[in-house]
Design brief:
The complex is a heterodimer of chains A (115) and B (117).
Chain A (H helix, E strand, L loop, with lengths): L3 E3 L3 E4 L5 E7 L5 E8 L3 E10 L2 E4 L6 E7 L2 E6 L8 E8 L10 E2 L3 E5 L1
Chain B lengths: L2 E4 L3 E5 L4 E3 L1 E4 L4 E8 L5 E7 L5 E3 L5 E5 L4 E6 L8 E9 L10 E2 L3 E6 L1
The chains are: A mainly beta (115), B mainly beta (117).
Chain lengths: 115, 117
């Protein structure tokens, strides 16, 4: 089974801190994604990566950056955490670009609280 | 840009009753369509998907969804629900261009299904 692992289930950080959320997948997937989940808004794409060192902005990239130095690892960085970034963050991966390859596999999520 | 609308934020039903969770999308190009389920304190799991071919797709636990291109809908149905179906359900669309989508998903707002005994 595909496994997508997020390093933390719960995080509490202070306003202004630099925050790193880590995600690792074990199935050699090409694509990796970071989503943010908020009640009533569903999931919104922050950034995605389709190859090592490649990244593309999603729908809500402001205040975030990402890093993909190795194929299996995709990091989300909050440069200076703010209270409006309190949310559930979900990492996902998919094998490729067509048909069944596009199925996304999700991690358990990281619930981040910024105080 | 594509968008996905789930018409009901919450759907309460009694056990063994039928249920329909509605999903409409807007896109002028070909799409892949998905339903994901999220149980409390867990990540999302794929429930079923439409990629091509038969417009009626089924999951292993009794859910089905029908792709209706003319109405741009992908409603999820189950003829008889169980307590264990209580969860949040998300409809998602991936736009394809020449068959390539990068797997980027646009999600609806989610529908919380609560099954009462």
């Amino acid at each position: 089974d595909v496994k997508v692992t997020q390093s933390s289930r719960y995080l509490v950080k202070r306003t202004g801190e630099k925050v790193f959320l880590e995600c690792v997948q074990d199935m050699d997937h090409e694509n990796m994604f970071w989503y943010r989940q908020d009640p009533g808004l569903g999931l919104r794409l922050i950034y995605f990566s389709y190859d090592v060192k490649m990244k593309e902005k999603g729908d809500i990239p402001e205040g975030y950056s990402v890093s993909r130095e190795k194929k299996e690892r995709f990091s989300l960085i909050l440069e200076s955490a703010s209270t409006n970034q309190t949310s559930m963050y979900l990492c996902a991966s998919s094998f490729g670009w067509t048909g069944d390859q596009t199925e996304a596999f999700f991690g358990q999520g990281t619930r981040l609280t910024v105080v | 840009a594509q968008s996905v609308t789930q018409l009901d934020s919450q759907v309460p039903v009694f056990e063994e009753a039928p249920v329909e969770l509605r999903c409409n999308y807007s896109s002028s190009v070909s799409v892949y369509l998905f339903w994901y389920v999220q149980y409390p304190n867990q990540g999302l799991q794929l429930l079923l998907k439409y990629l091509s071919g038969s417009t009626l797709v089924e999951s292993i636990n009794g859910f089905e969804a029908e792709f209706n291109k003319s109405q741009t809908s992908f409603h999820l149905r189950k003829p008889s629900v169980h307590i264990s179906d209580t969860a949040e359900y998300f409809c998602a669309v991936s736009v394809t261009a020449g068959g390539t989508s990068y797997g980027k998903l646009t999600f609806g707002q989610g529908t919380i299904l609560t099954v009462h005994p």
